[in-house]
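just leaving the lab so this will be short. below you get a single protein, a line of residues and a line of whole numbers that encode the local backbone shape. id like you to explain what the token line says about the fold, in plain words if possible. thanks a lot i owe you, the record is right below:

…
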Amino acid sequence: MTDMMRIAVTGTDPRHDEGEWIATILREGWDAVHLRHPAASLSEMRRLIESVPQQLHSRLRLHGHFELINEFNVGGLHLNRRCPAPPANYRGGLSRSCHTVEEIAEADSHLEYVTLSPVFDSISKPGYTAAFSDYELESIETFSSPIVIALGGVTPEHTGYLRRAGFGGYAVLGYLWAASGQQDLEHRLRQFV
């Protein structure tokens, strides 16, 4: 088992078997799956959540359509440029996207974690290259709150470096969703242990 947080982030476009893949990821012991479908409608996101077994909903985190917190017991909301603030009176788990070390320093200490991207060259977005020097990444260990999660181009080969640099975990998108099928997904997930 790893002491680093392991988070999967869905791709831009929903998959027909996505609920099954999300369930597999969570059953393999990953901490959370971020539902990040910026172009999805409210009804599409509702159907996606409904396709995931209810006992796993508390490990899902929404990147949009925050009103679904009134229908499902999801584990939290992820704030980003599209959705920069939680609904009024929301008291659940919160995380935020950061794209600079300065944004981390300015992040609210009540956040459970922040994602920092792109740490490595993106797999899912060709041409979206790493934005940080080794020096900047090695300064991550100075942040004790909130926890900093590496995002962008993360593969199993990077986990040792991320641990040494002081990251509290990693979020994986392209590497997982590029799997050719369920068996390949399971193989890719187990490479991170």
